[in-house]
Amino acid sequence: MKDQIQIVSWLLTRRCNLKCSYCAIVKDYGLKPVKYPDMKHYTEKEMSTEYVIETLKKIKLHNPDAFHLFYGGEPLLRRDLSEILNFCNENDIHYTIITNNSDDIQPLIQKLLHEVEYIQGLTSSVDPMILNDYATPEDDRYKKCIAGLERLKNYTGVIKDVVAEITVDNNSIDNLYTLVKMLTEAGINSDITTVDVAKTPYYDFSNVTDESQLVQRDQHVKDIFQKIIDDRIAEEEAARIENAERFEKIRKYREALAADGIDPDMPVDDHFNTVVTKTQNLEKPNVITTLDMESPGAAPMGEGLGDLGNVEIAVPQIDEIGLIVKDDLGRPVQTIAKPLIEVVQGIEVEVKVMEDILQTCM
Asked: Which of 66, 205, 267, 304 is 20 to 30 A distant from 341 in Cα terms?
């Protein structure tokens, strides 16, 4: 690894919509040393939009692959967050937003999604206590954990990288593997942190003073993390094999198109039209392309020129990778499909093969 900044932590604000008892970042202290300002100082001296963007530019020049953590407080309370994220998106700067993901913040997340082209990453904590035997549905902390987890699940597929921030101590370490596995199966990545002893009683991220809560550096803990790593390696290998198989299917599909005289680079819709046209050359294809009606005016479905509602057409049978199935003599195998019947200008009924007949992996 080069001697460069790899991860940048941005404490964008100390403002927050919550007042969690364990949080030492967002609170005022009655008695404290003079060197520690009060909360008013921090809220009035937040970094400006211009300062953030100019610093992002400098770090981009220093290390284009640096990863940025936008947190607080609650970073979504900053009105300029969309401007900051748009700059990151336009300049290929990697980031995640660390949010408490609470009820009050949901409208702000939705608003942000409409103000930016996309959100690269969203991180929210998931407490391992949801797997504790003593946790009950009536427990307020338990309810918050479950609600936060469900919200994260809802953002998978909407936000590129959805991450659960897991903080473990000596009491919850045994639940770590199960929690990570559960999150992975839900499409959520995990960021694991172990608790640390507070270095100061003021404005520290940790309020832990009892060292017995710290995760022990023993073989048991090493085995837990090794199991998580092994699972990750296995997942990456499975994904590599799946991608290789997919590319091989695409290659075969393109070769089959070229062998049939079809340009593999033409739009998929044109593939569909070409294949349907070719079905007219099959042996006894029974392919209907246009039915002329006897008189102008749209006829109800099933009336005029026979029962159009029962029209069936022969089309090539397509296998799971998009290739035309052929018999032992090399002849295309036909299958019968119900067409989509559409009245065109009230005079003609155009029979179109439904697009889902031709499923390709293009």
From this structure: 267
* Sheet strands (E) in 52-181: 67-71, 94-98, 121-125, 161-168
Alpha helix segments (H runs only) across 93-173: 106-115, 140-155
As a whole number of angstroms, the distance between CA 240 and CA 136 comes to: 41
Query: CA nearest 43: which of 71, 79, 9, 16?
Result: 16
Long-range contacts of 173-180 (CB under 8 A, 24+ apart): 173/215, 173/221, 173/224, 174/224, 175/128, 175/131, 175/132, 176/128, 176/224, 176/228, 177/224, 177/227, 177/228, 178/131, 179/126, 179/128, 179/130, 179/131, 180/228, 180/231
Task: Please state the domain extents for the chain.
Answer: 7-220, 268-357
| N-term to C-term CA, the chain | 38
Counts of helices then strands in the chain (DSSP H, E): 8, 11
Amino acid 317 reads Q
Encoding tokens for residue 125?
Answer: 């904590």
Q: What is the pLDDT of residues 127-185, one digit of tens each?
A: 887 887 666 777 777 777 888 889 999 999 899 999 999 999 998 999 999 999 999 99
d(CA 327, CA 307): 32
Quote the CA–CA distance of 71 and 23 in Å, as a whole number: 14
Domain 7-220: top CATH class = alpha beta
Residue 88 corresponds to which tokens in the numbers above?
Answer: 């990151």
**Is-contact 77 104, C-beta < 8 A?**
no
Tell me, yes or no, if the pTM score tops 0.70. no
Query: Are residues 215 and 173 in contact, defined by beta-carbon separation less than 8 angstroms?
Result: yes
In angstroms, the Cα distances linking 165 to 55, 124, 175 are: 26, 6, 14
256 burial (CB, 10 Å; 0-12 / 13-18 / 19+) is middle
Gap between the Cα atoms of 338 and 313, Å rounded: 7
Average pLDDT, the chain: 77
Taking each helix axis from N to C end, the angle separating 81-90 and 106-115, rounded to the nearest 10 degrees, works out to: 40
- H/E stretch holding 341 reads strand 340-344
